[in-house]
Amino acid sequence: MTVKMNGADLLVEALKANGVKNVYGLVGIPVTDVSRLMEMEGIHFYAFRREDAAVEAAAAAGYLTGRPGIALTVSAPGFLNGLVALKEATENCWPVIMISGSSDRALVDMDRGEYEGMDQYNAAKPFCKAAFRIDKPEDVGLGVARAIRAAIGGRPGGVYLDVPGEMLGQMLDPSIDPASTIHVPVDPAPAQFPSDEAVKRAVDILTSAKRPAILLGKGAAYAKAEDQIRDLVSSTSIPFLPMSMAKGIIPDGDKNSAAAARSLSLGSADVILLLGCRLNWLLSNGASPKPFSEDVKFIQVDIDGQEIDSNRHIAAPLVGDMVSVLSKFVPAVKAAGYKAPQDWLDKIAEKKASNVEKMSKAEEAGKGKEPMGFYGAMLPIRDLIADNPDTYLVSEGANTLDIGRDVIDIFQPRHRLDTGTWGVMGVGLPYAIATAVETGRPVIDLAGDSAFGFDGMETETVCRYHLPVIVVVCNNGGIYNGKDPEIDGMVSPTYLDPSGQYDLLSRAFGGRAYCVRTYQEMEDALKEAYASKEPTVINAVLDPNMGKESGHIGHLNPVIFHQDGPVDLPSEK
Ligand code: ADP
Ligand code: MG
C-alpha cells in the first residue's frame, strides 16, 4: 500500500483485500480513474455498453460464486440505468454491490444544477437490500465491508454503495495508517441452523407422506446444496421438480424427476418440500386446486423467516441456510428409513411415460419443419449440452424461454441462468458474459428476437473480450410472434423485422455469424461455432407464425383480444 492514499486508492485496496477479482462496469466522470487503478492493481475491469448490463453481469457473478459481484457506474443516468438491475438482483436474491460515483452534494442539495446531479443514495434505498454512502476516505474500508456483509449475509440481495467524486479525490489524513482502515468481514454469511424441534416437526410430516414431492428453487442452487439434495432424493425416491434455475441440481432426466408429470405431481401431492423456492407468481402464489391441492402440507426451507407463510400456510418452516438445515434434516429423514410409496411413484411414472411419448413425437415432427419452429433451433442445443454437460445455458424471451426450459436438459447445478423472478428481458448477454468470465466455460445464450434487442450491443463486449459465447436468436419476427405485421394499416406493436440479420452484429465486431433456416443448418452451425470457441451469433430464422402470446403466461394479460400462433410442442404437461 502506498503511504499517501485518496478515496479511490482505498476503494481499490478494500476490494482487493476482500478477494475481488472481476469488476463489471461502465466508466465516466467521476469513476474512470477508479477503473484504471483497479487494473493497475490486478483487478479485471469488464467494460460494458450500458450500465444495466454491467450490473446484471455482476449479479450473475454473485449467483455463480456466492461472493458479491461488483459493478461500477457513473453518476445519475448511469446510476439509474444500473438501478433496475440492482432491483432485479434483489428480487432474485442474488448478491451484488453496485458502486456509483456521485456528484457534489452541496450543489445537488441546493438544486444548483450540478453535472449529473442527483441524490442517488436516497433514490437507491427502496430498490435494494441496503445502501451506504461513504463520505470520508477513512470510511471506505468500513463501507466495503458493510456492503459485503449486507449482500451475502442472510437472504442475499443487491447493495448500493455511493462514492462521491469529492471523496474519491480526497487524501486520507496522513496521521491514519491506510491499512488500519481496511476491513475483511469475518464469517459474513454465517451458518444458521434450525432448532431440533423444527427439524423433528418437518421430518414427522415428510415421513408420513403418502404422495410426497420436492420443489427445488434457485435458492438451493445458490446455496450449493446439491450433494445433500441428491442424497435425500436418491435415498428416499421422493419425486422432485426443479424451478427453471434449479435444473441441474439433480440432472434432468434422473429417474426421480417428475418434471414431465408436473401437473399431476404438484396437484396430487399431500406433502411438498420447498427447497429455496418461493410460492410467488411463478407457482401461482400457491393457489388451489391448481397447481397445488387444497390440503397439501408444505415444509419450507428458506434463509429468510419472513418468506414463510407469505402465500400459503407452511406446516413446517425450516429457517436457516440450506446447507446447515439439510445437514440436520437429511440424516434424520434417512434414519427414519422413509421411502416414497410405490403406488405414488407408479402413477407418476405412467404419466411421465405418456407425456414423454407426446414430446418425442412433437420433436420428430419439429425436426422436419421448414421453415423451422422452436424445436428446429433448440434440439441441436439440447443434444450439444447432453454431450457437453459443463456448458452453460442462458435464456430469455417468452416462447423461447418457456420452450427451451422444457426441451433442453441441464445436468449440473447453476448451469442455467434466465430471466428470473422478475421475468426481465435484456439479461441474456450480461449473464452470458459474466458466466464465461467467472467459469471459463462455453456459454450458449438462447434469446428471442425481441429479448436480444434489449442488450444486443453487448455483442461487441463479447467480441472485445473474445469470450466463448454463442448467441442463438430465435427470430420469429416479433414479440411473441410475427404473424400480424399490421393492425388497421399501422405497424403492429408486437411486430419486429423478420428479415433482420442479427448475425451480422457479430460480424461487425469480428465474431462469427450464421444464418440458419432448418434443423440441419442449425445443428451444423452450432457444432462449428462450439468447436471454434469464438464469439458467435446464430440468427435462427423461424416460422413467424410460431409463438403464443406471452408464452406460457398468457393468462396474466388482462386480455382484450389476442391471437395465438401455434407452438410446436404440447405446452401443458
Ligand atoms: P425460484 O424462482 O427458483 O423458485 P426463488 O428465487 O423464488 O427461487 O427462491 C429462492 C429462495 O431461496 C428465497 O426465498 C431465498 O430467501 C432463499 N435462499 C437464498 N439463499 C439461501 C440459502 N443459502 N439457504 C436457504 N435459502 C436460501
Ligand atoms: Mg420473437
Question: Which features does this protein show?
Answer:
alpha/beta; Rossmann fold; binds adenosine-5'-diphosphate; 3 domains; 573 residues; binds magnesium ion; six-stranded parallel β-sheet
Number of domains: 3
The whole-number mean of residue pLDDT values reads 95
CATH H-level homologous superfamily name of the largest domain: Thiamin diphosphate (ThDP)-binding fold, Pyr/PP domains
Distance between the termini: 60 Å
Q: What's a concise summary of this model?
A:
The chain is 40% helix and 16% strand. The strands form four sheets. A six-stranded parallel sheet has the order 2-1-3-4-6-5, with helices on both faces. Strands 13-12-14-15-19-18 form a six-stranded parallel sheet, sandwiched between helices.
Write the layout of secondary structure elements.
Elements: H1 7-17, E1 22-25, H2 32-40, E2 44-47, H3 51-65, E3 69-73, H4 76-92, E4 96-102, H5 105-109, H6 120-124, E5 130-133, H7 140-152, E6 158-164, H8 165-169, H9 178-181, H10 196-207, E7 212-216, H11 218-222, H12 226-236, E8 240-242, H13 262-268, E9 271-275, E10 297-302, E11 316-319, H14 322-335, H15 342-368, H16 374-387, E12 392-396, H17 399-407, E13 416-418, H18 428-439, E14 443-448, H19 449-455, H20 458-464, E15 469-475, E16 486-487, E17 490-491, H21 503-508, E18 512-516, H22 519-532, E19 536-541
Parallel strand pairs: 1-2, 1-3, 3-4, 4-6, 5-6, 7-8, 7-9, 9-10, 10-11, 12-13, 12-14, 14-15, 15-19, 18-19
Antiparallel strand pairs: 16-17
This protein binds adenosine-5'-diphosphate (ADP) and magnesium ion.
